[in-house]
Amino acid sequence: MGEPATLDEVRRWPALVSLAQAARALGFSITTSYRLDRRGEFPVPVLRVAGPRRVRTADLLAFLEAGGASA
After folding, report:
1. Where along the chain do its domains lie?
2. DSSP secondary-structure letter at 13?
3. pLDDT digits (tens, 9 = 90+) for 11-22
4. Looking at domain 7-65, which CATH architecture does it have?
């Protein structure tokens, strides 16, 4: 899985990131992230548009700055 992303790193990310990149920010494995998404339990909204699942970086930052997950 590697090291979780720091808040400073996440702040430099583009507006939308992949579910795998969001998992890294949250300190989750990609397997856990997809499982949580399937259950509707991923801690931030997941965009389900054509192509891969995406997460808004602003939502990740709000969650992390509020003390969520491991970053």
Report:
1. 7-65
2. S
3. 999 999 999 999
4. Orthogonal Bundle (1.10)
